[in-house]
Every structure is written in structure tokens, then in C-alpha cells.
Amino acid sequence: MDRIVYDRMAAHDSTHWWYRARRDILNDYLRREGRVPAGARILEIGCGTGHNLPMLARFGTVDAIEIDPAARAIASQRLGRPVGDAPLPALPGVERGAYDLIAVLDVVEHIADDVAALAAMRACLKPGGKILITVPAHQ
User: Fold this and answer.
1) pTM value?
2) What share of the chain has pLDDT > 70, as a percent?
3) Prior bond to 136 cis, omega within 30?
4) What is the C-alpha separation between 87 and 43, in angstroms, rounded?
């Protein structure tokens, strides 16, 4: 995507009803059904501008990955530390067996080899870890 798209996303993702409602739904789901352990290690893959990172941080320590440099810069600023750039499907350099939760929100549909991507994500989970996946309704 173009830089302007990410700039617009960052300008509106804290106030626009869609982003706010979606975060509320995901937060509620994780709180009620996610069974995320206290102090969990969480990885968001494809974090975009980082608008979900504060919500995910309610459940533990968050790491993030974004391959777009413009979005990664915004997300790094929001996270307060560098966001990684390991691409799917391989996730090179991402620690294996390290995460209690991996969030992949509207990302999997962009990956040609989604099966390999899911296998790489699984390898990054601790035993009993979970992957939270969302996909758009109309793709």
C-alpha cells in the first residue's frame, strides 16, 4: 500500500467506529474465550500502523511484525521499540516456541502459501499457544 494509506489509517484508527468496534470485539473475545495466560508473550503479525498493539498489551508483552516500511515506522513509534519485518510464510528470525498468542488480523488472505504460513506460526507458539485469525468478509 502507499504511504498515504498508512498515514490515513494512523490518523483515524483511534477514532473511527470500525477500528474501535473491532478492537472492542477482539478484546472481549480474548478476555472471555482466549484463555491467554497472565503475562503472556504475544506476537502480532502484520500489525500495520500498530493500532491493535495497546489492546493486545492488556494481555501481556507484545512483539510485532510489519513488512511495509511506512507502516512499520508508525507501529514502532506506537510500540516504543522496533517492530520486526520478518515476512510470511517463513518468519525468519522469529523465535520458535516463544509465544502464548499470535494475532494475525486480516493478513492470511494476502499470503500465497497460507498453509506454510500457518505452520511457521505454529512453530513460534509455546505448547498450548493459540493463533487468533481474522479475515475480511468480502475477499
Assistant:
1) 0.93
2) 97
3) no
4) 13
